[in-house]
Amino acid sequence: MQKLLSVAIPCFNSEDYVEKAIKSLLPGEGQVEIIVVDDGSTDGTAEIASEYKNKYPDTVRVITKENGGHGDAVMAATKAAGGLYFRVLDSDDWLDGAALTQLLKILEEMRDPEKAADLVISNYVYEKVSEGRSHPINYRKTIPSGRLFGWDEVGKWSLGSYILMHAATYRTEIVHKSEMQLPKHTFYVDHLYVCRLMMHVKKMYYLDADLYHYFIGRADQSVNEKVMLSRIDQQLRVNRLMLYELDADSVEDRGKREYLYYYTEIVTLATVSFLLRRNTKEDEKVMEDFLDEIEEKRPVYYAWIMGRPFYRHMMGPIRRLPHWFGYPLYRICYIIARRIFGFN
Questions:
Q1: Is it the case that residue 173 has pLDDT exceeding 70?
Q2: Do 186 and 229 lie in a common domain?
Q3: Burial of 145 by CB count in 10 Å (0-12 exposed, 13-18 middle, 19+ buried)?
Q4: What is the pLDDT of residue 222?
Q5: Terminal-to-terminal C-alpha distance of the chain
Q6: CA distance 315 to 91
Q7: How many structural domains are present in the chain?
Q8: Per residue in 56-89, pLDDT tens?
Q9: Greatest Cα pair distance in the chain
Q10: Are 30 and 106 in contact (CB under 8 A)?
Q11: pLDDT tier for residue 343 given thresholds of 50, 70 and 90
């Protein structure tokens, strides 16, 4: 019988933590297909993956490939996935065993096409291990839980609680039919992953359980602020792909269109924030030019985002305020938001 869930674990030099990721999926043995993608690692990642493949041959698969980056590793896993549903688990993160059991019970019911969701949403938790604190993200105020629902039942998205990759379990048929392509050697493509598949989603289900634990704290982590500041060119690339390759303006479902707007807003906010955090005149000029570019190429979206109230969005006021006041104010608001929501 077809397994319920395929889980991709993209790995690059992950020997220090990939074992924990694999072990967190073993409570689903027999129902879960674990696809470890070794993306050209030069450490012991491949050996650890092979050990688990030998120990759990009906559960663990290993794909070894030359380095192509996170998105390319995810693409390799999507092509190999045979489960009814598909999700991604980064190699330094883990899933909660009890929540995974709940998810598999729901997916079992979804073998019936009449009960199947295109997307199953669950909660995730920012784990700042070095600081000894966690910050859970849930969707209780925005979407109904425990049943199928459509975009017409989606409420207003709360600030900071958007459907990131960590929250998304997609029906594998949608992943395959989407013909999604993610760019090689590019960080932050998880945003593209979520939105490109979201374009095909009609029916959803919300499991109100803290399934995904998102580790934050490694100095070399892609979401570490210093690392993100050094990779602003890749942030801009992903941002532009979201803005100009996703035809969100033409989406008929208002709820879906607004979600895609909200998600693009998050990424654009991050881009603007990092350019301002670098605190140079050159980066300020890049930021202003980027916003001018959006106004020219995506006028509908630009009008929407600039019309947002101050407490929801800073980019409208920042363009109307004098730079000597608006830029420092934006930097302060970013630091406060990072503290509240626990990102990077």
A1: yes
A2: no
A3: middle
A4: 46
A5: 41
A6: 34
A7: 2
A8: 999 999 999 999 999 999 999 999 999 999 999 9
A9: 64
A10: no
A11: low
